[in-house]
Amino acid sequence: MSKQTAKRRGANLAIESLPGLSDRDRAQLKACGIATTQQLLARTRAKSAQLAIANQLQIHPQYISKWAALADLARVPSVGGRYCGLLLHAGIASVAQLAQTPTHRLHRQILRMQVATMQRRDLCPAVEVVQRWIAEARSL
What we know:
Elements lengths: L2 H7 L13 H9 L5 H7 L3 H11 L3 H14 L5 H10 L5 H6 L2 H16 L8 H13 L1
């Protein structure tokens, strides 16, 4: 794969890199043939496919939707598995939504969330980091 193709497609991470999945969840996904974020995205594009996987794993379809959103956000190279959960909790559910969100508004949302949940402003990524996420999302 060329560097340009990899850049367009974004990161292809191991399923272990997604936050919030238990060891059991990861093992079940692997048993379904899903070991990477790209495989998860490919297998969950349609709602019917998400329902089929949820039925196979005997879990609520909402979990599959959440994991698919995390995998989508993790495609942004500077977001990856490190910040995809933060973005999802801040209300960003897709790369397309991230690309359209103004930097100042997203940074403010993340700052509010960090203060409300952790009582720490210093954990909020810098504005420049948020700008990079958005720029990379626009290029995908």
